[in-house]
Structure formats: structure tokens, C-alpha cells
Amino acid sequence: MSTARQNVDKLRGIVALSQFGAVGDGVADDTTAIQAALNSGAKRVFGVQGATYLVSHTGTFTAFTSTAMRFCVQIPTGVVLDLNGATVKLANSQNSSIFATYNTTGSGLLNANLDGNRANQTQPATGDMAGIIAYNTTRLTLENIRAFDMRQYAGRFLGHTQSVIRNLRCVDVDGDGWAFGIGSYEAIECQIDDIYSENCLKNYPSFGSPTLEGNGVLGAFVRCQVGRMFQKHCGGGIKIQDTSAYSTFDSLTVIGPTNGSTNSGIKVQGNGAGLSPIGINIGDITTVNNYGNGLYIIDCQSVQIANYLGSGNGQGSGATGSDQYDTYLQGKAAGRIHVSNMDVQSSTTDGVVTTISGGIFIDNLNVRNPTGIGVSHGGNTDLELYIGTCRVTGSGVTHAVKVSGGKGRIDTLITDRLHNVSTGTLPILVNSISAITDALAQFSIGRAKLGTNLEPSGVVTLTNGATETDVANENIFRFYTGTVSGADTYFMPVIAVEPFNSSAAALGEMRALPNRGDTAISPTGTGFKIYHATAGATDYVYWSVVGWQIVARAPS
């Protein structure tokens, strides 16, 4: 670059790293030259495409919890470093973040490749290490950054406001990928888009805490607009946590298999100690072949999801017990989780588990090939589950729906599982409910279909001269469920009876109740009784099962 051009650029606030002696051959240490360029008073500093700048540890700054953070190069207030596609490499045994920007306004890093040289790093004596660490920043700009071979984080951002962060890529990270805050050190009113993580390996042990989970993306997002986040082959998942509030996410995708952790898929979670996400709105979620849950929502005040697709999650043999299902939904008292469309393909797990507290609403749910239960619902009395259309199919289904607590309703249930009490095949199962009384139906189902059988209906002639009529139809017991605490507990069919001719109409009000046996698991299966006024020989009525409700009674 000519001297005249350099002078003009300086007047315009633009300088090049080479003007300050940066070599960029990957051998010479360019730390001092880069820092001199950034401290020169220029607003824009450029690197050379194809260059590799070697940097080493120079200092620390004090961040949250008064922790000293080590760094190599500091980006000051109002300065944007555009590396023009060059690489900045951490020298051997530096155990430090490559770039740091702290207590700044309007700083930025663009078009950078960050090489963490992780094979030649251990752990810093204090603080965190990352490709770039940002603390207490306003209007930070990060665009077109590729971080690789990182020992701990690709990037850690703690307390940044009104930032623009786009096109971040990281591969081969021992700890977590892109961390957008935690607790009160949040991302606030930021625009974030196109965040990619691959092979975050859960290999970095943190001082005084367990090994980092290898989350591809995690953070506390407050009033943020987030576009696409995508990760694959990471130890943990995409995590929206703690104080996250009133933020939108267009598309979240997690592809496994993950690396030996039950902490996988998409997680929206509070900390269990008062920090609970609220107002989280997500467009599309896709999780495929993850080690543990595909979707995990816990301790949240309000979460809304337009479309969720989970396929083949629960791959890890270590994801045992309560983690062997695709979806886990747990709100807070008076909280709300709403999913418009949910499609779960769970060849190795249960489908959807709802538990503890809160209101959970699913408009359309399709669970295919679960190994075990399609939908399992149970928790406190303030737990409510409402599903519009629920479809559970597959040869591995043991129960299409299992209810062990809470309240709710399924408007339409469709399953290909048939009912067989003698073999224990119960498409709808109720258990562990001891507080249900005749006057309290905690859970109900509207229209239902098992196998090829729709809910039954028919026309019968009332018994001449009698006040009750037996109707033989064992199909009404296809939804029989089981026993609880010595009571006969099952989804009792709600049977509507209507006069079929004018003479029957003159008999007044009628009602129908199922015939029940004298044991909880062996109903007579003979059908039901219609109770009416004294009938004539030509009085006809139409009956139909219009729904199902949990009922608990002492055996008759």
C-alpha cells in the first residue's frame, strides 16, 4: 500500500495490520502489532486474506463474579477488526481467549477464522478461554466468524445489549460452542442469526463444577430476535435458559448422535431457583437421533412452538429411566406451554411425557412407533394437558395414553392399538390416581378410534313394560383401563340416548350406564343399561358413545 493511500486511510479512520508490523506467516508472534493497530485510534482495522496471525497471552480483565479472564488481544470501544478472511491462531500453552472486548460500545469482529490450537492448551489459571469473549458490551457486531479446535468455548458473551451477531461457525470444541449469557448476564435486544455448531465434545472439565456439557448453543435471551440455529454431533443441545424472556426463534435444529450425554436436543429451562423463561416463541424445531430427549421444557412460565419434529431420539444406552422418551414437558404453576403441531417418531423411546405443573396445550399430536407409551400424563393437581387431535400408532405401543395424575382432555384420540384385558393390552391406562371421586372427572376424551373400530352406536327396542333395558355391546369396554387403590377406575363411556320415534319421546328423560363386574379388571363386557320410564313394545331409541371420562367407584 502506498504512503499516500495509507495517509488517506488514516484520515478516514482505516488502517491495516501490516502497517503496524504484523507478519501473518503463522510463525512470528503478531500480538503486539495487532494490538497497536487496534489502539491507533482507527475505527476500522483490516487484516490480509490468507494470512495467519499468531497471538499469545498479554493480560486479564475482571468479569462477572470478579473473575480474572485471560486474553491475547483486546478490541477497544468503537473499533471494528475486519480480518478479511485471515486466521488468528493461539500460540502453544497460552491457555487464554484469543480476543476480548469488555465494557465497550460499538466494537466488532468480522470475517475471521479463529484457531484455538487446543491440542497445545490446557486450562487457564483463572477464568474462561474462548475464540472471543465479550463482557458488558453494547452494540457489539460479530459477523462471519469461524472458530475451530477450541479448548473450552468457541465464543462466550456475557452481558451484551443491542448487538448484531450473524454467521458464526464452530467445529471441534472441547467444551461448549456459542454461549450467549447466563443468569443476569444476558443477551438483551440483540439480533442473532445463522449460528452453527459441530462436534462440541464435552471434554472440558470446569474448575469447581462438572464437565461442560458440550452445548452447541446456549444462553439467556431477553427481547432478542433470533433466526436460525443449527448444531450436530454435540454433547449437549441448544439451551434457552434462566432469565430468557420475550424472544423469538425462527428455526432450531439439533442432529445427533451426541457424544455420551443425556443432555441433548432442544432445552428451554429455568434454574429451579426462581429464574424461569417467559414469552419464548419458537417457529420450527427439528431434533434427530439425539442421545436423550429431543425436546425438553422445564420450569418455564410460557413457551410457544409452532412446529416440532422429533425423530429417533433416545439413542444412548445411558439415557435410561425417565430420559427414555422423545419429549418432556414440565411447566410452572399457572405457566403455559403451547405446541401447535408436534410429530414424534420414536422407534426407541416413549413419545411425550407431561408432568409436575402448568398448562400444556398441543393442537395436533402424532406419535409414531414409540416403544412403550405414546403420551404419559401425570403430576400435581395444577397440571393440565389439552390435546386437540392425538394419533398414536405402531406395533411397539403398550398404551396410547397413560394418565396418572393431573387434569385435561383429548378431543380426538386415534390409535391402532386394540383392547384386550386378558393380555394386559390397554390402549388407555389410568393408574396411581387415588383422589378421584364420582363427582370429579379429572381427564376426558371426546371422539376415539381403536384399531378399525369407531366408537359404537346403534338403535335398540326398549324392553316392553320395563323401566330399564339391557344393551349387549362389549365394544364400549374397549377403553377400560385398570384399577387404583381398590376402586374400579377406568375411562367410563359417556353414552347419549335419544328417542327414535314419537312414542319413545313421550317417555321423558333417559340415561345409560355401563354394566360393571364385581372386580376392577374384569368387567362383564356385556354392555350397558338404559334407564327410562315404563316402555312399550314399539319404543325405539338411538344410542352413541360421545366421549370418555375417568371415573372411580367402589366395586358394585
- Count every helix, treating DSSP H or I runs of 4 or more residues as helices: 3
- For the secondary structure, the number of strands is 40
The percent range for strand residues is over 45%
Q: Return the average pLDDT rounded to an integer.
A: 86
Taking the sheet with the most strands, its summary is: 37 strands, mixed
User: How far apart are the termini?
Assistant: 98 Å
Spatial shape: elongated
- What structural class results from the helix and strand content? mainly beta
Q: Using the CA coordinates, give the radius of gyration.
A: 31 Å
Low-confidence stretches: 434-440, 478-488, 517-524
Report helical residue fraction.
Answer: under 10%
Q: Could you explain how this protein is built, in words?
A:
The protein has 556 residues and is mainly β. Helix content is 4%, strand content 54%. The chain has three helices and 40 strands. It has a 37-stranded mixed beta sheet that branches. Strands 35-39-38 form a three-stranded antiparallel beta sheet, with no helix packed on it. Residues 434-440, 478-488 and 517-524 have low confidence and may be disordered.
Task: Record the SSE blueprint.
Elements: H1 3-11, E1 14-16, E2 25-29, H2 31-38, E3 44-46, E4 52-55, E5 59-62, E6 68-74, E7 80-82, E8 87-90, E9 97-102, E10 108-115, E11 130-138, E12 141-150, E13 153-161, E14 164-173, E15 178-180, E16 187-188, E17 191-200, E18 217-219, E19 221-222, E20 225-232, E21 238-241, E22 245-255, E23 266-269, E24 278-288, E25 295-311, E26 325-345, E27 350-368, E28 372-393, E29 397-403, E30 407-415, E31 428-430, E32 443-450, E33 453-454, E34 457-461, E35 468-472, E36 482-484, E37 487-499, H3 502-505, E38 511-514, E39 527-531, E40 540-553
